[in-house]
Structure formats: C-alpha cells, structure tokens
Amino acid sequence: MKKPKTLYILILDFDPHLLCPARHTTGDTPVEDLTAATATAEPTPMPTPIPTATPLEMTDDGDRAIIAGDYDRAIEIFQNALANTTDTTVTDKSNLGIGQAYYEQSNYAPALTALRLAAASADTTIAARGQLFPGAVLHQPGTL
C-alpha cells in the first residue's frame, strides 16, 4: 500500500504598502522598507573542504618545489612531512629533500646533517642519493 502524498500550501499575506518604493510614510514618521534586504538574502554557501595531503604526498610536493627552485618552500614542506609521520620512507625522503634544498642554497652545514640521515636509509636508492651530495658538498670552496 502506497503512502499518500502530502500537499503543503503556503499562504502569504502581503501588505500592499510594502510593495511601494523604498520609503513609506506613516503620518509624519518615515518608515524604511526592509523587504528588499530580506527578500534578496540567500543562504551562505559552505566552503568545499580541502583534503589534507598525507606525509608521503607532501614529499612529492617538496620534490616539485625543489624542481621549481623554491627551496625555502621545499624545506618547509619536508619539515611538515617529518613532523607528521613516523614512517621511515617518509622520514628518509624528507631528510634527502631537506638536504638537497639546503645544498642548492649553498647552506652546507644543515645540508650535510640531513644528507647523512638520508644516507643511513634502509632504502638503497635514498641512501645512494644521500651519499652523493656530501661528496659534492665537501668539494665546494669554503665548506667544512
């Protein structure tokens, strides 16, 4: 058996004086028409939530920042990834990225610290890349 449909009827009672231009008078006192302001009010749209990147996705963003030459942003991204994970892959990739960004800025002391951490990685690719940069750092004039 089908449920009967519900019919709603809305009855509006308008004051014809409210349909006139913006100001009305009642005797000697002017009365402001507020219907225009309330008639155009629309509900405020809710902002679309922005998904939060995972720490592993953050390391990809950091790599893109290095490629773009935005080393300060890359360091910030990698540090955020480090702060939000205990995953060794993310930690190793972040240390490598931080070291590479500092190296590109000719800031060799923090580059060496981060690259030595990356060189100790269980991931052979990250470890090899981490070992590549310290050799280049030591051949720079005026380094440690």
Give an overview of the whole structure.
With 144 residues, this protein is mostly helical. It contains 6 helices and 2 strands, in the order E-E-H-H-H-H-H-H. It has a domain at 55-138: Alpha Horseshoe (Serine Threonine Protein Phosphatase 5, Tetratricopeptide repeat), CATH 1.25.40. A two-stranded antiparallel sheet has the order 1-2. Helix 4 packs antiparallel against helix 5 and helix 4 (88-104) packs parallel to helix 6. The radius of gyration is 32 Å and the shape is elongated. The model has no long low-confidence stretch (mean pLDDT 78).
Q: Topology of this structure?
A:
Layout: E1 23-26, E2 29-32, H1 35-39, H2 55-68, H3 71-83, H4 88-104, H5 108-119, H6 124-138
Antiparallel strand pairs: 1-2
Helix pairs in contact: 2-3, 2-4, 3-4, 4-5, 4-6, 5-6
Quick summary of this structure?
This protein has a domain at 55-138: Alpha Horseshoe (Serine Threonine Protein Phosphatase 5, Tetratricopeptide repeat), CATH 1.25.40.
Which tags fit this structure?
144 residues; Serine Threonine Protein Phosphatase 5, Tetratricopeptide repeat
* Percent helix: 40-55%
Shape: elongated
Percent strand equals 5-15%
| Chain-averaged pLDDT | 78
Helical run tally: 6
Tell me the radius of gyration. Answer: 32 Å
- Unreliable stretches covering 5 or more consecutive residues: none
Class by alpha and beta content:
mainly alpha
| Assembly state | single chain
H/E series: EEHHHHHH
Give a short account of the largest sheet. 2 strands, antiparallel
CATH class of the domain at 55-138: Mainly Alpha
Give the second-level CATH assignment, the architecture of the domain at 55-138.
Alpha Horseshoe
Biggest sheet: strand arrangement:
1-2
Distance between the termini: 87 Å
Number of strands: 2
The CATH topology label of the domain at 55-138 is Serine Threonine Protein Phosphatase 5, Tetratricopeptide repeat
